[in-house]
Each structure stands twice: as C-alpha cells, then as structure tokens.
Predict the structure.
Amino acid sequence: MELIFASGNAHKIKELNDKSPGHIQVISMREKGFEGEIAEPGETLEENARIKADFIYDLFGENVFADDSGLEIEALDGAPGVFSARYAGPDCSFEDNNKKVLIELAGEENRRAHFRTVIHLILNGEHFSFEGAVNGTIIAQLKGTEGFGYDPIFLPEGHDRTFAEMSLAEKNSISHRAQAVEKLIHFLHSR
Ligand code: IMP
C-alpha cells in the first residue's frame, strides 16, 4: 500500500520508510509530482497538519499523512507554537528565533516549555491523529551545536544536556517527533 507523506523533507521520508511495515511504502508529495508548498494558515498544529493532509488528499484521493511541530512555551501562552519556524520574521535564522525567545523570557521564572508534534492521517477516507510531546525548560543561553531550531535552548526534563548537546540517535530516542511517528507506525502495523 502506498501512503503519501505531505512533506517535501526527504530526510523525514527516508526515516519513515526505514521504520514502516513492509506492506506500506511511504512516498513524498514530490514523487507524486506536487512541487509546490502547502500554505499553513491554521492557528494550531492540529489544524495545520489536517490542512496539509486534506490538501494532498483532495489532489490525489489517496492515503496520506502530514505532520506539524512546534515549541510551546508556558509563560508565552504557547508561543511560538504554530509560528515556530518564522517566529522572528519571514527570513529569520534559527539563531534569530532563539534570541527572540530568550529576550521575551528575560527575568521570567517560569521557563517550562514543550515540543509537540501532531500527525494527521487520512486512511481509506477515515481521519486519525497522533501526538508526541516532550517536556523541558528553556535555559538562559544557547548550548550545543547539534540539531536545529530551538534545540540549543531546550533542556529536556530528566536530562542535563540540551537537545543540541545530544547525538541525533539520543534525541530521537525521546523527541516529540519520534514519539508521534512511533504511534503512527504502531497504528499502521495493526492495519
Ligand atoms: P516542522 O513542522 O517539523 O517543520 O517544525 C516547525 C518548526 O518548529 C521548525 O522550523 C523549528 O523551528 C521548530 N521545531 C520543530 N521540531 C524541532 C526540534 O526537534 N528541535 C528544534 N526545533 C524544532
């Protein structure tokens, strides 16, 4: 069975194909011939994941899933959340985003935050959703050079190193995205 991943991220697709059951082949929307970007006008990760899955389902009428992730900071009422990628502006860098968060949290005692991933699956016309989350705190300065995005300022609960100080394998053993993907794979195995 073919399952389209509504994403242009080749790395994510390879990772999923390595993990998914033999009878399911994950193919990217690029392989299906869709070269564009899908707008993400939603106000929540759930909405954006569903918008992306619906968009590709409307185009091809085939089984599809989409994911959306973000960092949600308690003292900032859940920001940057759905705006995580471009929090500091349209062409901002990861560093710009991290700096903006640190400035907004200056003097703030509540540093609690979590990363969250939502996956929306449309299988034989039915809708399913899977979530992964990891709790942690935002530290006061950047630490580590691995990973991407907010990894240098995120200290996962129960650990003494930021995501950016961990190897990819170590981060993947606890990350929000890995947890959501595990749930999706588990579900697919049962079908
Ligand atoms: P996406 O939905 O996976 O493309 O993630 C959207 C944005 O959330 C990214 O551009 C990052 O800014 C942030 N983000 C998501 N996952 C992570 C992570 O594992 N580490 C750091 N930042 C992340």
The radius of gyration is 17 Å. The pocket of inosinic acid is lined by residues 68-71, 84-85, 115, 147-151, 163, 175, 177 (CB under 6 Å).
